[in-house]
Write a structure and sequence with these properties.
Chain lengths: 489, 648
């Protein structure tokens, strides 16, 4: 075996390296050495992001074509890395608390392992490697969800998560076994793609497609696979919720795109275009309808993220290079916007224990900076210009109608637009509570920690500038264009 | 030329805006003032370096075979929506742009310095300087725009900063309503501008000025002779674009905001509402000049609007009491003068016979330059008077020449310049404009010569009523005196410029195609205009130098005309009638009713249904994990079966 092939897996090796460093430091450092863990990990993660971004990928398929790390994969990993980095910064205050102090090393290790799994999900070009990635991105999250040992809700959430996750894995594997029936004995994406052509539509293929969609859709919380979302998001520690809502979701979306376009690209218009069409509409609408009623901020963000997942899937609907680039951009913007909101929720919950929307009344009087950050995040999520969310929405809408001029796709965009208006209603409820509500503020003034400040600043800068600095979007377009294995229809 | 200097010219004012806007509250007034002045001084120096390099370095990029070139210093892609719809931001250097850089930064620097004395003790001193920097940034961005979309962006930014500065004294209801009026009227005009841009670029597929103006026949060809309501599409586009210019440059009938804009601080009036922003419309026409030339109808439109406005504003200026409003109407009239001058020009070169057809363009730009200097001088002089007397009305002034010698002499120079008396700068530029008009058609020439006479009359009426006439008895209690040095220095500087600017060989620097043109005075035109101006001044001297009852007699002889002119020919009333009675009463009210009772009700219905559905499906989220998995499984199965049924 040619061991130099490992050199092609640079992003994975970097994450693995950080994992080992953190693990060894955590295990062997003396008690007082633990306080260096947080700064060390966050700095390493930042360096890792820069390294993955700067070092050019070789772009060749290695391990017999099981693994590819081209420019586009690299860009996706960068996006996920940024998200994980911000999540770690936001969690810093929480992991430094007394209950968590001795377990913070494990927290970082679990996050890093899941990130490693997500990288494999993106780079896998063979279903076995994909499943390994998926599972290693999935199982540690259950442990993370249960991290608040002393809280009943945290345990309940973890149980719910693991049951649903196991079920979804079963569904996915069933689907894959159907796929295997077509492939003629191979689980390579490229081999299967040759076998599945629109000529031979059958019930088996439809079930295979549905089960694969349902299996990956679970991680994306697509309707009707979304029911776990609210309970798990509410029960999990807020840092974990933040991580689940953006990084985990982003990785699943990328993998979804790659699998559906590379493996099932031939039957796009014959089969799964309309399946996805229905799922997207259901996801956006149901997410919105539930989000309207929520008073608990974490539940509220859960349903908002269900609805956002529908918008992300519009990129898959486009199923071309423009769709992929828009989806990357959408997810990056979603990372900064959603994590901006979660940073505020986390800080307030950490200091006061309050998570209800009513508790946010008059927040601007006591914590004006937090109120501004939250407002920007809400505006961006709702897609109000000139913030990044507006640009990401407009770009993903444009991509949907880019490759074929079909009335149905325009209808899809129209429905998504109407839902944007509905979403504006509930996002603005938060803004209204913070700025307009005349009640006495329940949340007293408090100071933010250093890491939290950095995280919030990064998010706000991202919200304000990502859309206006066209370099970012152009970078995604170029990276997608440069990846030959993503050359789609 | 490297990109550093051009970028700094734009970045520095913007940085000063951020610095003073955000950090201003923590600074003392003195620090904020000095920072603002230093920042603007540096910007001015840089702009001078760029402009002088452009005009005099002889670099082949700037001047090739004696013809000045258009040079894009940089032009970077900002937003690329689709392959065609690409918004760029750049820096275009050409003669008019270089000239505007000099004008804007000079006047802005003078105003910064002047304001240090004038605004002393006002609330929000730091905020004022921040807004001035924002305005300067926007105006510079407007003139260096490489494409019409960038120009539109900065065009709106200029509008916003004008709004902020007019309403600077936001505790005065009159200032607030004036700022709103200015914003709404210009925004309304900008709607036309936007429609024009969309129409034009739909056909040309490019926003870039150089692409459009270097080959205007192409633009004409690309519209392919499409017509709309009897006029060609290109005519519509150019007229609509000109509408934006009419709003900013206060042409009839969109002029109504400019007199009210005088509610802003006087230095602001000098900077924005006399020298820079209001000439944006002229600049726009000059920028698109070759395209305007290929459609005669749009040029005629420009000329006619300009000619009517010039006369109207001059007549109104003769009857105003507020000295700033006299100057405001004078500004409208002078800008209209430039518009007519542009309108009579064409791209033919030395065409029919011996006339140079591009003369009007050169003369209009020349007048833009000289007018900016002497009108800023007059406004700053008016500021010094207001500072001394604490009133805008000439009735509270009179006989001030003994008390305020510096203001008196500089104001007199300004009046002589605008009246067109040699050797002051206004004479030279006005002479060229009138010559261009006579070359085109003697009617335009005669009409505008009459307007020039009116100009001389109302300016000297103003001058005499302020500095001669009869002393106000109040001076015994409160003796007026000249302004502090920060205010006197700009006055003296601008007066000096107004004395010598006429001798600049302007034709060598700025012509429509960059080829130099040698200015020469046309003796008949020059003699006529001098005689008319002297006669008008003599009449003003007779009527207003010493207190007498001649003005009252005139007023009583033509009561209707005087009142009408004094009330500005009822334009404001007409607008109020149209907006309040017709639009609000007949259109808005029914629409409001429809909106409240039909649309809102429908929307409320939708909202209720949404809420109900939301309530009805809450059971799906039971908290029961077994139910979740069931939903999951049966959901997936249902999806599969439905697809199956639909496909097979």
């Amino acid at each position: 075996m040619d061991y130099s092939q490992f050199g092609a897996m640079l992003p994975e090796l970097i994450i693995l390296g950080i994992f080992l460093i953190v693990f060894l430091a955590d295990t062997f450092s003396p008690e007082n050495g633990k306080k260096f863990l947080t700064p060390m990990t966050t700095v390493l993660m930042l360096l890792a992001t820069v390294a993955i971004w700067i070092v050019p990928s070789c772009g060749e398929a290695v391990f017999g074509g099981m693994y590819v790390d081209g420019p586009a994969c690299k860009a996706m990993k960068c996006v996920l890395n940024v998200g994980a980095w911000i999540c770690m910064l936001e969690a810093a205050k929480w992991v430094e608390s007394d209950v968590m102090y001795y377990r913070k090393g494990e927290f970082y290790e679990l996050i890093l392992v899941t990130l490693f799994g997500m990288y494999l999900m993106i780079s896998a070009r063979h279903f076995l490697l994909f499943i390994i990635g998926l599972e290693s991105a999935s199982l540690p999250i259950a442990a993370l969800v249960a991290y608040n040992k002393d809280k009943y809700e945290s345990h309940e959430a973890a149980i719910k998560y693991i049951i649903t996750a196991v079920f979804s894995s079963a569904i996915l594997l069933t689907g894959l076994s159907f796929v295997y029936a077509f492939s003629g004995g191979s689980l390579y994406f490229s081999d299967i793609a040759v076998q599945i052509t629109s000529g031979e539509m059958s019930g088996l293929l439809i079930f295979a497609l549905t089960f694969v969609l349902a299996g990956i859709g679970f991680k994306l919380s697509l309707v009707p696979m979304h029911l776990w979302t609210a309970d798990v998001y509410q029960g999990a520690p807020t840092s974990v919720t933040a991580y689940l809502s953006v990084v985990s979701k982003g990785a699943a979306a990328f993998a979804f795109f790659i699998i559906f376009v590379q493996v099932f690209g031939q039957v796009y218009s014959a089969a799964w275009e309309w399946m996805l069409y229905a799922v997207i509409i259901a996801t956006i609408t149901v997410g919105n309808l539930f989000a309207m009623r929520q008073k608990n901020m974490k539940r509220f963000m859960a349903f908002s993220s269900v609805s956002q997942a529908g918008y992300i899937m519009l990129g898959v609907m486009a199923a071309n290079q423009l769709g992929m680039a828009s989806m990357m951009f959408y997810i990056l913007v979603y990372v900064v916007s959603n994590l901006g909101a979660f940073a505020v929720i986390q800080m307030i919950e950490d200091r006061t224990g309050l998570v209800s929307m009513d508790d946010y009344n008059g927040l601007h009087k006591t914590n004006p900076y937090l109120a501004v950050a939250m407002t920007l995040a809400m505006f961006s999520l709702a897609g109000i210009p000139p913030f990044a969310g507006f640009f990401s929405k407009i770009l993903i809408f444009t991509s949907v109608t880019s490759h074929q001029n079909s009335m149905a796709l325009y209808m899809l965009v129209l429905i998504a637009l109407i839902n944007t208006i509905i979403s504006l209603y509930y996002y603005l409820l938060v803004v209204k509570a913070m700025w307009i509500s005349a009640d006495e503020p329940k949340i007293g003034a408090f100071k933010s920690g250093k890491c939290e400040k950095v995280a919030l600043t990064v998010c706000v800068l991202g919200i304000v500038f990502l859309g206006l600095v066209s370099y970012v979007y152009k970078y995604f377009i170029d990276s997608v264009g440069a990846e030959t294995l993503l050359a789609l229809n | 030329m490297g990109v550093t200097l051009p970028i700094l010219i734009l970045a520095l004012p913007f940085f000063m805006f951020l610095l003073l806007g955000i950090g201003g509250v923590k600074m003392s007034r003195k620090v904020a003032g000095i920072l603002g002045i230093l920042g603007m001084g540096t910007t001015m120096t840089l702009a001078y370096i760029v402009a002088f390099t452009y005009f005099f370095s002889g670099d082949p990029a700037f001047i090739l075979d004696g013809v000045r070139q258009q040079f894009q210093v940089f032009d970077v892609t900002w937003l690329a929506f689709t392959e065609k719809l690409v918004v760029k931001i750049g820096f275009l250097l050409d003669p008019i742009c270089a000239m505007m850089l000099v004008v804007i930064t000079t006047i802005s620097f003078m105003v910064h310095l002047y304001s240090w004395g004038y605004m002393e003790g006002e609330r929000g001193f730091q905020r004022y300087y921040a807004f001035l920097s924002l305005f300067t940034f926007s105006m510079l961005g407007l003139v260096v725009a490489t494409n019409i979309f960038q120009m539109y962006i900065f065009w709106e930014l200029v509008g916003v900063s004008s709004f902020l500065l007019i309403g600077f004294f936001y505790r005065l209801p009159s200032a607030v309503s004036a700022s709103k009026k200015a914003f709404i009227v210009t925004r309304f005009a900008d709607l036309g501008f936007l429609l024009g841009i969309l129409t034009l670029t739909y056909f040309t597929d490019t926003f870039n000025f150089v692409d459009m103006t270097s080959n205007p026949m192409n633009v004409l060809a690309e519209t392919g002779g499409a017509t709309f309501m009897g006029a060609s599409v290109l005519t519509w586009a150019m007229v609509l674009i000109f509408t934006g210019g009419m709003g900013k440059s206060a042409m009839l009938p969109l002029h109504i905001w400019l007199p009210d804009a005088m509610e802003g601080p006087t230095p602001v009036s000098a900077l924005i509402h006399a020298a820079t922003m209001v000439v944006a419309g002229v600049y726009l026409v000059a920028r698109m000049f070759p395209v305007y030339c290929v459609v005669d109808a749009s040029m005629t439109f420009v000329t006619v609007v300009g000619a009517i406005t010039a006369f109207y504003a001059a007549v109104v200026a003769c009857t105003q009491i507020d000295i700033k409003r006299v100057l405001a109407f004078s500004t409208i009239s002078q800008i209209a003068f430039m518009m007519v001058s542009l309108g009579v020009a064409s791209t033919g070169g030395v065409g029919d016979g011996h006339h140079y057809t591009g003369l009007g363009y050169m003369a209009g730009m020349f007048h833009l330059f000289t007018h900016a200097m002497f009108k800023a001088l007059l406004f700053l002089g008016a500021g010094a008077l207001i500072h001394a007397v604490h009133s805008n009305d000439y009735t509270k002034m009179g006989g001030l020449r003994k008390y305020m010698p510096i203001t008196h002499w500089t104001f007199l120079i300004g009046c002589l310049a605008i009246a067109g008396i040699p050797p002051f700068s206004g004479f030279f530029s006005k002479d060229e404009m009138l010559a261009a008009m006579f070359n085109n058609n003697w009617i335009w020439g005669a009409w505008m010569t009459m307007v020039a006479g009116l100009t001389a009359f109302y300016m000297f009426r103003l001058y005499y009523l302020i500095f001669w006439w009869e002393e106000n008895p109040d001076y015994a209690h409160h003796k007026p005196h000249d302004a502090p040095w920060q205010m006197s220095v700009p006055l003296i500087f601008l007066a000096a410029v107004s004395c010598v600017a006429g001798f600049i060989p302007f034709g060598e620097l700025v012509t429509w195609n960059g080829a130099p043109y040698h200015i020469h005075l046309e003796a008949p035109v020059a003699c006529t205009s001098i005689i008319v101006a002297l006669a008008a001044i003599a009449l003003a001297t007779k009527m207003y130098m010493k207190k007498n009852d001649l003005p009252t007699k005139f007023k009583n002889a033509l009561p209707g005309l005087w009142t009408a002119a004094h009330r500005r020919f009822y334009w404001d009333e007409i607008y109020l009638f149209i907006t309040h009675k017709i639009i609000f009463g007949c259109i808005s009210k029914p629409i409001a009713w429809f909106d409240r009772h039909v649309i809102d009700a429908t929307m409320d219905g939708f909202a209720k249904v949404t809420q109900k559905v939301s309530f009805a499906i809450r059971g799906m989220q039971s908290g029961n994990v077994q139910a979740y998995v069931l939903w999951y499984f049966f959901g997936a199965l249902a999806l599969a079966f439905i697809t199956w049924i639909c496909l097979l």
